[in-house]
């Protein structure tokens, strides 16, 4: 790699959300002709940084300098596929040309630009008129890249382009990425797969807790040093706080998941969770682990297998049915599923237990308030704020309410999907404490997490998942972070 | 954000842009609580202005006429509001239900006015239940479902009535009396219906469930609530109250005719929207719909007394609806916008 020009430079960027610092003095240079891997755990600040570069949000201070003043040569390929399945390949690429003069693109020029972009993205021979839904996943991902290229991008930001792909497909994407860099572009490559970093990148930046903690040519790193940089030395020590788990096993019930399968999501998943224990399913996005927790609470059509509470099968598994059986759920998506934003804290907390705060179908205000206050104290939420609308609370407090909503139902099993996603550190510890306490009251807790730090704080047992299958099960006290991370990244113990 | 896009706009000397404009709108929304407060205040102010400015407005006869003119539409609007609150927009079969109910009432009047009333209400409830099952259990689009429902109802009624007016073989004057010589029976029924609907919405488990499903159906599902039974309840309520409005409408002349009540559906939607009930669901209550009906009636009444032409009245009504939608939109934005 010859010494080359900087195509994109991030200089001293800071960003806070409310009181929480998301980025602290971040400076990174992205060079022409290089694949630059951007690594970090969930919450390390990668996506915040990327959003600032893409000008989706603005930084508090610092600047982003590109080779063009308006950064129009920077294109972003987001993690979730945004191609439109019903439209043809041609139409999908044309969508990103929309900003052409007067909104009208001369047909000839359009055709050749679309072809050019597709060829660069490794889709040279593709039929322009085939609908995108007919393409395999990897080609859709390449099409996504082609859309970025169609706007003549010099710098291309790829956010986990291989998260949902198989090995063969990944290789194809890698080839394209390499050739794009060789043509003189700067590639920012965000990934959780450490193996591909060494295969693909020229340079690595590791972020942790909003700061750049390591930066250098790929040859300066090895797998162990990357994991250390990502997780931080303090977390290698292991369990931060061990709770007293002395409980009376008398009232505890056991959740038994037997040979559960949902086509294209996960296959033959079995495990048991005893009351009083927290079991975490640990896997990357796309590993199927999050789909397993959604299936347990009744959101999926099972292809086979069963979910039992003790020996009783929860039949005709639906959200309503599983709730009635005593299985409560806390969604990963706070705004869409977690809370009623415009309703008060009280109304949120009582929403699952209306019969118990009413008499003869008529709500009893005093009972509602009393229940809300007692639940609020269990999730360490300020009791005096129970009349406020949930929408006026911070993300962390909203999540406490979402969890409180589930706690209020006195579940036998509590299932949580990424319980601290987007929640600041202070609120996190409150949430962990509430969940540990709940487990000590004989509730069986199942949590999906993609955050190894969270497992240490929260779980007794960890089940690792890779591409729809369980890899193995561990007591959290007798396994290293490196082992867990390796299992979810490579599928081997 | 799930787009592939070139990064737009300027070299970023990225100091956070001021968001004072949005904050100000939010503050306004919080002050008002919700749109219905603004509407209610507007109604009272307009009423007082009309009393002072419009000659002949503040007479007992005119006020009674005003209330009579809105009672039946108000009943239909209160029913419609339940559908809106549960998050299923509107029923477009209200006019048809009212029209068919006039025929059923007239046809059954020989068996006694109260019995005929119950039959008409029961018909409306059943018609609503069928549409509710389609829109709730089978997740059909409520607008399309109710358009189809209206067509079927009118078609069947046309066959039986052969398009003719059905004269009632009985005396329906019990619904035309003035209670204590002052309060018309229709107005009393309207007030009762509004009060009961408000109470159910505000104080019962059923009302709370309907609100929660309207606010956020997926969050309600996470809590284990099922939406479809509540959607059916909403359509039954709307149908039954449209049936009630139809029966009372027929009682005025003792006759039923499919041409009767043609404007009820649109007027009820107007009342719901003007009353400040959010079409996104969950926000607002049946009382707002009654206030909306009153506001529209008040305006028409005053404009007639002032001597404005029909065309001008239409324009004023249209502007009023737009005003209500803007207020409702700003208020709900202010509420939702907080900490997304």
UniProtKB/TrEMBL annotation, chain A:
Coiled-coil region(s): none
Keywords of the record: ATP-binding, Nucleotide-binding, Repeat, Transport
InterPro entries, sorted: AAA+_ATPase, ABC_carbohydrate_import_ATPase, ABC_transporter-like_ATP-bd, ABC_transporter-like_CS, P-loop_NTPase
ABC transporter domain mapped to chain residues: 8-234, 240-492
PROSITE patterns: ABC_TRANSPORTER_1 (PS00211), ABC_TRANSPORTER_2 (PS50893)
Gene3D superfamilies named in the record: P-loop containing nucleotide triphosphate hydrolases
Domain of life: Bacteria
GO molecular function: ATP binding; ATP hydrolysis activity
Entries under Pfam families matching the protein: ABC_tran
Protein name (database record): ABC transporter domain-containing protein
Automatic annotation (TrEMBL), chain B:
Keywords per UniProt: Cell membrane, Membrane, Transmembrane, Transmembrane helix
InterPro entries assigned to the protein according to its UniProt record, in alphabetical order: ABC_transp_permease
GO (cellular component) term, any one: plasma membrane
Localisation per UniProt entry: Cell membrane
Record membrane topology: Multi-pass membrane protein
Gene Ontology terms, MF aspect: transmembrane transporter activity
Transmembrane segments: 35-54, 66-91, 103-130, 142-160, 172-200, 228-250, 256-277, 289-308, 314-334
Superkingdom, natural source: Bacteria
Name the UniProt record assigns to this protein: ABC transporter permease
């Amino acid at each position: 790699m010859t010494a080359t020009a900087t195509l994109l430079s991030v200089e001293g960027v800071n960003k806070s959300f409310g009181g929480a610092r998301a980025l602290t003095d971040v400076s990174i240079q992205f060079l022409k002709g290089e694949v630059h891997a951007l690594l970090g755990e969930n919450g390390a600040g990668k996506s915040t940084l990327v959003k600032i570069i893409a000008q989706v949000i603005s930084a508090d201070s610092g600047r982003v300098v590109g080779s063009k003043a308006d950064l129009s040569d920077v294109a972003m390929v987001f993690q979730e596929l945004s191609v439109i399945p019903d439209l043809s390949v041609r139409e999908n690429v044309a969508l990103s040309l929309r900003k052409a003069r007067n909104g009208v693109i001369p047909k000839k020029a359009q055709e050749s630009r679309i072809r050019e972009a597709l060829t660069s993205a490794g889709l040279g021979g593709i039929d322009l008129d085939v609908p995108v839904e007919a393409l395999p996943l990897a080609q859709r991902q390449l099409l996504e890249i082609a859309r970025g290229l169609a706007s003549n991008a010099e710098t291309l930001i790829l956010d986990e382009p291989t998260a949902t792909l198989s090995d063969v497909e990944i290789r194809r994407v890698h080839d394209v990425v390499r050739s794009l860099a060789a043509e003189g572009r700067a590639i920012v490559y965000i990934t959780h797969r450490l193996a591909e970093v060494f295969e693909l990148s020229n340079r690595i930046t590791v972020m942790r807790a909003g700061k750049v903690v390591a930066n250098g040519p790929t040859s300066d790193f090895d797998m162990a040093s990357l994991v250390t940089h990502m997780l931080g030395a303090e977390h290698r020590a292991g369990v931060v706080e061990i709770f007293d788990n002395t409980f009376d096993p008398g009232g505890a019930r056991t959740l038994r998941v037997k040979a559960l399968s949902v086509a294209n999501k996960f296959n033959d998943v079995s495990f048991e969770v005893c009351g009083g224990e927290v079991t975490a399913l640990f896997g990357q996005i796309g590993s199927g682990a999050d789909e397993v927790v959604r299936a347990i609470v009744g959101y999926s059509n099972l292809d086979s297998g069963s979910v039992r509470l003790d020996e009783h099968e929860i039949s005709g598994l639906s959200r309503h049915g599983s709730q009635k059986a005593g299985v409560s759920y806390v969604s990963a998506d706070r705004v869409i599923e977690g809370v009623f934003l415009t309703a008060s804290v009280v109304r949120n907390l009582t929403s699952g237990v209306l019969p118990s705060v009413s008499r003869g179908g008529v709500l009893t205000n005093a009972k509602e308030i009393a229940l809300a206050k007692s639940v609020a104290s269990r999730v360490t939420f300020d009791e005096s704020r129970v009349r406020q609308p949930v929408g006026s609370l911070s993300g962390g407090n909203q999540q406490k309410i979402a969890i409180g909503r589930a706690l209020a139902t006195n579940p036998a099993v509590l299932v949580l999907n990424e319980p601290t996603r987007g929640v600041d550190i202070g609120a996190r510890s409150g949430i962990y404490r509430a969940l540990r306490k709940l487990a000590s009251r004989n509730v069986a807790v199942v949590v999906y997490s993609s955050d190894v730090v969270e497992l240490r704080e929260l779980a007794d047992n960890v089940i690792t998942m890779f591409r729809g299958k369980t890899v193995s099960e561990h007591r959290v006290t007798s396994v290293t972070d490196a082992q867990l991370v390796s299992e979810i990244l490579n599928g081997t113990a | 954000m799930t787009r592939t896009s070139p990064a737009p706009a300027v070299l970023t000397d990225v100091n956070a842009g001021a968001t004072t404009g949005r904050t100000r709108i939010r503050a306004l929304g919080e002050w008002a609580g919700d749109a219905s407060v603004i509407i209610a205040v507007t109604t009272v102010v307009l009423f007082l202005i009309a009393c002072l400015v419009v000659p002949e407005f503040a007479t007992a006869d005119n006020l009674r006429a005003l209330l009579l003119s809105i009672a039946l539409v108000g009943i239909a609007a209160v029913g419609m509001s339940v559908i809106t609150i549960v998050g299923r927009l509107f029923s477009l079969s209200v006019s048809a239900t009212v029209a068919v109910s006039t025929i059923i009432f007239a046809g059954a009047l020989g068996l006694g006015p109260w019995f005929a009333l119950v039959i008409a209400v029961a018909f409306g409830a059943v018609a609503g239940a069928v549409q509710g099952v389609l829109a709730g259990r089978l997740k059909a689009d409520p607008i399309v479902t109710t358009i189809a429902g209206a067509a079927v109802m009118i078609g069947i009624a046309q066959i039986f009535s052969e398009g003719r007016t059905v004269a009632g073989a009985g005396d329906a004057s019990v619904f035309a009396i003035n209670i204590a010589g002052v309060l018309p029976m229709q107005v009393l029924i309207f007030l009762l219906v509004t009060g009961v609907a408000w109470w159910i919405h505000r104080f019962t488990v059923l009302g709370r469930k309907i609100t929660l499903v309207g606010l956020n159906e997926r969050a309600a599902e996470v809590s284990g609530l099922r939406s479809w039974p509540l959607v059916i309840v909403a359509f039954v309520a709307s149908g039954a109250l449209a049936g009630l409005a139809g029966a009372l409408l027929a009682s005025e002349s003792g006759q039923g005719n499919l041409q009767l009540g043609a404007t009820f559906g649109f007027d009820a939607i107007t009342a719901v929207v003007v009353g400040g009930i959010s079409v996104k669901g969950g926000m607002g209550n049946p009382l707002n719909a009654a206030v909306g009906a009153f506001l529209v009636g008040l305006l028409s009444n005053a404009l007639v007394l002032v001597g404005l032409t029909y065309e001008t009245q239409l324009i004023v009504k249209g502007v009023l609806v737009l005003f209500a939608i803007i207020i409702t939109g700003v208020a709900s934005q202010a509420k939702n916008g907080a900490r997304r």
